[in-house]
Amino acid sequence: MVTGFHFETWRAIVRRVTCGFAAGLVLSLWSSVVLGAADEGVGNGGDAEIGILGTVTQVDGLEVNGRSIMPAPEASISVEGETVSADDLKVGHVVTIEAREADGTWLADRITIRHAVVGPVGPIDSSIRRLQVLGQEVKIAAGVRPEDFGVDFDALETGQLIQVSGLRRDNGLIEATRIESAPDGTKAALRGPISAIDGTGFSIGDQRVEAADAASLEGLGVGDQVFVSGTTEADALRASNVRREAARPFDGRYKTLSLEGFLGRGDGKQLRLAGHDWNLERGMEFDGMSSDQLRFGQRLIVEGELADGEKPEVTPRVVRAAQVGRSGAYAGSRTLPPIVRSTGGMMGVRPAPDATETSPQEIIGRRGGSPEPSVTPGVRRQNRSRLRIQRPVRPNYTSDPAPLPPGGRRPPRWRQRGESVRGGARVRRR
Questions:
Q1: Is the pLDDT confidence value at 327 over 60?
Q2: Which range of residues forms the domain containing residue 101?
């Protein structure tokens, strides 16, 4: 009876422990799945969100900054406030996109086509593919194919109303990726930094802008990025609308950013791209290139985060060369060609170096943002936490191994090193 009692008791205990362990395991797995999913969606309703500024490289399956993007069914597509359709998106357009990730696909909720300048054609120099529009120097970006233009460059005439899509360099030169004829009745428009200002207006480059009233000049200063539209009268642009561009990308609505622009110098000898200084307190990766290949004036794509603080700085995470023109064998993909094949770099006008010129590499080193190892071209960038770490090769303790003893078996390594075993631990013989 006693033996049976003990047997039944232990069997019940084992059964309860086993059931409890299984229930605990199931609960733990369920909690990790649910809580993990919840953590991924903290602050964005479960979807990742991003703000993109870049050039369209493909329209059949929209691609900007190497990302494939699909306009959402209810997406808003506009040109400076005027609603247009997805068919109006063309290769070479500079756009801003507000997108979110859903089920592995990037969906664009808002797409805005940005023109650098809209106005009558001024002097033309066909030999170097340059022209002037509203006092702005415009150069056709290298790598742009003629079929991607809405007009024939050689057929342009002085006074013809055109609209130019492109990005502006630090020296004011606009590198055009698309030029189109503007519809009749289109207002003249200009986007850029204020170079001079007085009580009645201001200048953007060589173009004088006359303000409609003093109220439209309130709060503006030299260096502020503005968008103006109006009518041209004599040598001035009489502005009916003056809008100051937000200091923070997308007015700070998006933490994650993808920006295209030309590498330049910021305030305090910092690096700057797309009008925003870089926060170099943390390292960054280089996709398809290395930090040694960075040059001022290079056309780059930077993916990073909006840095916390009063200054509108961007913390770069991944830097790669930008593609200009229609997507080809390597354009638009996550792995881009080496910088020596990219369209950015030495093309166009580069600011003349002075005696105090500092290289990008020196700025990165001084700011404490030493770059992380570059991503190998042709290999998709991976999460560094998942990279396989190669173990170091075990050293060879004996350069002249001992001869084989009788019997043909070599003693173990620790014996060859003159060690012995005492108390379960290996110690070296004296």
A1: no
A2: 49-114
